[in-house]
Amino acid sequence: MFSFIKKYAETIQGIEVYPKIAMFFFLVVFIGMVWFALRADKKYITELENLPLD
Amino acid sequence: MQAEKFSYDNTTVRNFAYATFIWGFVGMLVGLIVALQFFIPELNFIEQATFGRLRPLHTNAVIFAFVGNGIFMGVYYSLQRLCKARMWNDTLSKIHFWGWQLIIVAAAITLPLGLTSGKEYAELEWPIDIAITLVWVVFGVNMFGTILTRRERHLYVAIWFYIATWITVALLHIVNSMELPVSLFKSYTVYAGVQDALVQWWYGHNAVAFFLTTPYLGLMYYFLPKAANRPVYSYRLSIIHFWALIFLYIWAGPHHLLYTALPDWAQSLGTVFSIMLIMPSWGGMINGLLTLRGAWDKVRDDVVLKFYVVAVTAYGMATFEGPLLSIKSVNAISHYTDWTIAHVHVGALGWNGFLTFGVLFWLIPQMFRTKLYSRKLANIHFWLGTLGILFYAIPMYWAGFTQSFMWKQFTPEGILKYPNFLETVTAIMPLYITRSFGGFLYLLGSCFGIYNLYKTIRQGSFLANEEAEAPALEKNYETHSSEHWHRWIERRPVQLLVFSLIVVAIGGVVEFLPTFLIQSNIPTISSVKPYTPLELEGRDLYVREGCYVCHSQMIRPFRSEVARYGDYSKAGEFVYDHPFQWGSKRTGPDLAREGGKYPDSWHYNHMDDPRTMSPGSIMPPYPYMLDNDLKTQSTAKKIRAMQTLGVPYPAGFDKIAVQDLEKQAKKIQANLKKDGIECSEKKEIIAMIAYLQRIGTDIKAEPVASSTKP
To answer: What confidence score (pLDDT) does residue A27 get?
Structure first.
């Protein structure tokens, strides 16, 4: 999957782990966000979204 | 809980608002002038007003003066209200305001004087870079002071965007501005060639992301609901929007360098993340537009909402186009053409410009306790602006396609159909004229807007300190046992700042480290040698004149480009280039293999008046280079600076640098004399010719025409 990186970067040890870590980190943050956003209770969201209108 | 009395500071907001529309006018006016220079080359009448110097002035004025002051205006207004607190320190507010204006004035003076670092959108020289850093820190301290002394527990999503903006712009600016000073207004970037290109476009792309986009999204999340008088469509979506956007944006920089000498893996990484970016961007656009659900009838009457609707739509168009342009096959057509110019102006005129005017038309009446002077004038402004955007963008798309296809067209016999680059320029001249008409309409609209704001200000009475009251925050906040972790971070601005920094730093580190650490990424070419002192001085003149705004030095590995310009560019050719000069636009032809193409005398006459050698050329003339003496006082210093940066000049070379320079200059003088041109060897033009004759010759197989080469 990451052969395009390996081709140029194989001289650094363990380089192929870079994008995997990054992709993993991104997915964790992203899924965490979506999970939180969907689970957050309505009252709390209503309170937040009305902050500019107070 | 007893309510505390306090007041909001409107004075700073008002000052930033004034600065926004005054600098906006200046920036757009310079934009119109440079647009006119495309078909009236006579407008390049003095050294300080040549296109290469004015164009950076235009971009810097619009980005950092117009939009920059617009950001501060919006942040200073909304942050106070969202935090239920006055800005933390009035003195810091003053220092921030005046400091930023001084930086703008310094830029407006130094750029026309040719004092530039030669890196797009980061042209300002090192003392101004330091001033920007200091003022930015003042802004950050003031903002965080306000957030930490707030009376509202939760941080509304707009504030997250402000925090991410602050920390990321700080990171971008510091990393990209690493330079070694040679004199008060001359420095060399510490990065060379491919690395410099990568850092520069990591910066350039994210300057768009974190200066023109995230702070304005923060403004959208505050001012759009405010004007529509209803909450944002989906607060849940805004949370996802924020994290996904700041996470993905930072990776996308290399899409500015597709098909260049940048390693393939970095190009592919940039493309993947750019395409992913469409999701959070459109999430944000939809969130903005749907905030008006059930209130579309208001858009008919409320001119502020009209501006917002076009702004958010333009944001949607530009962020759809961005990922599209990052696909390599599309980029092969669009890059170096006016398509890019169309793209950025949909963003700048539509998204930033219209959102700014929307905010101004809402904010000024609020602070001056009056109504907008004339709805009719605002409507005229709106329509002139909208038409201006169309008259600007459509011809530029057309020009981009036309020129790109002309560059790539071959005859059935297999030779270039339009071998003379100039043909591809004259073909799109009517489109340049139409574009400037679009720019004129937009500027005219803005004049109506500014007049309208002026009359509104005159009829109102300014409320400098707006009284407010709110209870202080409880010291010991009791958390709910089932509380989610994200709620925890929403109350903690410092942690939010740290997490934002981690998120954006990861993208930068993954992009940079391999390029910096791995030798094989930039294969060295043994025939590539450092510039001679005369060539180095000539290169500095090339940077001073901003040649890179119209000429690339990067031949992509396409048949059409190799046939037109010569062998495609290799990463190893640029290892001594501080800064890199690959450019991003070809108003003129690529110069990566310019050395040896023409005799010295051709360059001499061409620089004096391009139209004598290329009738119909739109390049500015540089007659003053024939008159000005080349300053060699700092040549030795420049050589030492280059040695510090790792350029392998022999030890002690700085001492004989001027001697070497004079020797090479005499050769060029003799060459010119052979062609009947009498010229002192001390003139700037000699250094310029030396550099132009050097570019790209290191790996040329054929001997070069100029006899000055050893």
So the answer is: 82
